[in-house]
Amino acid sequence: MRPPGPRHATTDCHAPALAGWLTERGLVSAESRWTRLPAGRSNRVWRLDPPVGAPLICKLGLPDHATPIFPNDPAAEAAALDHLARTGLAPAPVAAIASPWGPVLMMEELAVTGPATPAAVGAALARLHRVPVMPETRKLLLDGASLLAEAEAMLDTAPPVLRATISAKRPDTPAPETGAIGLLHGDPAPDNVLATAAGIRFVDWQCPATGDPVFDLACFAAPSMRLAAGVDPLSDDELDDLLRGYENGAVAARFKRWRACLSYRFAAHAAWRVAHGHPDYAAGARAEIDLLEHLAR
């Protein structure tokens, strides 16, 4: 048993009212200690430590905190957790409820055992992509015209110098390859991939998709997404480990064919984030520019 903390102990302005509201509905103990977590760039996330039993995660969805390529759909996340409940690839869902402050998801808290190695992530993504797809999810297809149009729309609002620098690196794109379809996490950036004693688990399921597995591999490997998560870009050897762990030569080949196009899209996304109040993404935009230059040689 954990020693009980102060009633609804927290330093976050949302938590006291939300804690009382959830307590009234029998979803949490009144003596649970609430701790705001730094995880989650788009939503509010707390760890709940009850006086008895295992800790939980409580997530308050803020749907307006989406970006052009990463939706923030709490209903889709709740559906994804239910869909994956018996796969060992995501946290076990506990409850989903609409609150006066927004949608609330409660799920098991995952104990992280260490960093997720690229090979282990590749193997876990391969497992995920073999899970039956979810109905009514967004589609992500390897269609160069559509992907570049998405990138250009994001660049329209970017700072002029950054926009010009990225636009000068616009790559040629392969012919469309739209036949491969699987269940995608949609945003498996390194901070959404956790190594646990039971293996790799994926969190933050607010933008699941149906489409080509290359999108998930590209997101985990994208320099801008890695820097935003506070980790270094993958080395060439680590990228090889990721693809070897995935154990599918056809997918690896498509990843390599489409990497420049998807890097351009990630560069545009980072520039869009800079234009919308997140100057720390400038380093990610520069890292994608460097990658585009490297891939063009």
UniProtKB/TrEMBL annotation:
Q: Name one GO molecular function term.
A: transferase activity
Q: Keyword set for this entry?
A: Transferase
- In terms of superkingdom, the source organism counts as Bacteria
SUPFAM superfamilies, alphabetically?
Protein kinase-like (PK-like)
Q: InterPro entries annotated for this entry?
A: Aminoglycoside_PTrfase (IPR002575), Kinase-like_dom_sf (IPR011009)
Outline the extent of the Aminoglycoside phosphotransferase domain: 34-250
* Designated name of the protein: Phosphotransferase enzyme family protein
Phylogenetic lineage: Bacteria, Pseudomonadati, Pseudomonadota, Alphaproteobacteria, Rhodobacterales
